[in-house]
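@channel sequence for tomorrow's demo:
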Amino acid sequence: MPNYVPLAPARLLDTRAGGSTIDGQDSGAGPIPRTWAHQLQVTGRGGVPASGVAAVVLNVTAVGATTASYLTVYPTGIGTPATSNLNFAKGQTVPNLVVTAVGNGGQVSLYNATGSVHVLADVAGWFPTGSDLTSLSPARLM
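structure tokens (generated this afternoon):
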């Protein structure tokens, strides 16, 4: 069984007006508001199988934030972790590669702390259930 399955990058989320995705889902919905978590379907899209997926690798980009904030990416169905995956200042465009377990219904959640921000998410690969990947609950170490 492979431990990691790389994919040609495929856009799964683009909240900007006129934004496009691999399949038309999750495009142009508008910025993610403060203290809101957007649920993103990742399984069955962009080369990720509909089942048997433990985790996905996403390139997540914050665009045009109205204030300094952060995004947290985590499996849908658990509480929002007290950690961040991506920190940005007002107006910045900032990407970061994120590996996250897949949650309820094959979804991941993208939480924005303050202000509003457009978000792009491109899938770059996935880990199958039963692979050597060991996921942990996010925790701040320093």
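heads up for whoever presents: The mean pLDDT is 94.
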